[in-house]
């Protein structure tokens, strides 16, 4: 995961908000416990948004 991991209730909304603020999606993964989406801020620093299942 990235240097900053943020747990959110609504992953789709959080990703949309991050992208509106200038983040770009880098990928992610899913397993039986969580769904993770990795983004980079405008300066290129990675961060993860994750939702528990």
Task: Spell out the key features of this protein.
alpha+beta, 53 residues, globular
Mind sketching the topology for me?
Layout: E1 4-7, H1 11-20, E2 24-30, E3 34-40, E4 46-52
Parallel strand pairs: 1-4
Antiparallel strand pairs: 2-3, 3-4
Description:
With 53 residues, this protein is of the alpha+beta class. Helix content is 19%, strand content 47%. It has one helix at 11-20; strands spanning 4-7, 24-30, 34-40, 46-52. Strands 1-4-3-2 form a four-stranded mixed beta sheet, covered by helices on one side. The radius of gyration is 10 Å and the shape is globular. It starts with a strand and ends with a strand.
Please give a quick description of this structure:
The chain is an alpha+beta fold and 53 residues long. The protein has one helix at residues 11-20, and strands at 4-7, 24-30, 34-40, 46-52.
């Amino acid at each position: 995961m990235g240097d900053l991991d943020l747990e959110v209730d609504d992953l789709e909304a959080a990703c949309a908000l991050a992208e509106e603020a200038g983040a770009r999606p880098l990928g992610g993964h899913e397993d039986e416990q969580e769904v993770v989406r990795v983004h980079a801020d405008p300066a290129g620093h990675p961060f993860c948004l994750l939702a528990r299942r």
